[in-house]
Amino acid sequence: MGLFTNTLDISPTNLDATISGLPRYIVNKSFAFVSENGHTMTVPKGYISDLASFPWPFRNWFRPDDTRWAQAAVLHDYLCSVKKYPRRHADLYFFEAMQALKNPWHLRWAMYLSVKLRSVYLNLLG
After folding, report:
1. What is d(CA 10, CA 16) in angstroms, rounded to the nearest whole number?
2. Going edge to edge, which strands form the sheet with 25-27?
């Protein structure tokens, strides 16, 4: 199982909300995730994320800023934005990060499948 080097330190920004209406957060202190295979991925201070981008019908059950998954969501956003890894690897690192945060298996799988469905949707759009 991978591990985070430190806890997530974020704060809301005054930037406009995303298209989906989610507020944006700024990373106040960089953090790294070390995966099982030894890759170290560092999210820099100043990176801006919308955290977990759930479709609005699911936000009653899953808050985007919930600390149980926020750090994994910021890591995933960062990996997708820098494009250093293929999207499928970013999705797998998200799953591993969810495990490192000690989320139960059913929550890890539900959230992993949601990011995979988003990947399929984005690929269909081109």
Report:
1. 17
2. 10-12, 25-27, 48-49
Q: Which residues contact 64 (CB under 8 A, 6 or more apart)?
A: 22, 50, 51, 52, 53, 54, 70, 73
Instruction: Return the pLDDT at 65.
Output: 63
**Distances from the Cα of 103 to the Cα of 22, 56, 67, 68, angstroms:** 23, 22, 11, 7
Helices and strands in the chain: count of H runs, count of E runs: 3, 6
Domain count within the chain: 1
Domain extent for 45: 3-125
- Summarised one tens digit per residue, pLDDT across range 23-77 is 789 999 999 999 999 999 999 999 999 887 655 555 566 665 667 788 999 999 9
Separation of alpha carbons 45 and 9, rounded Å: 9
Region 14-28: what's the mean pLDDT? 76
Q: What is the mean pLDDT of residues 17-22?
A: 63
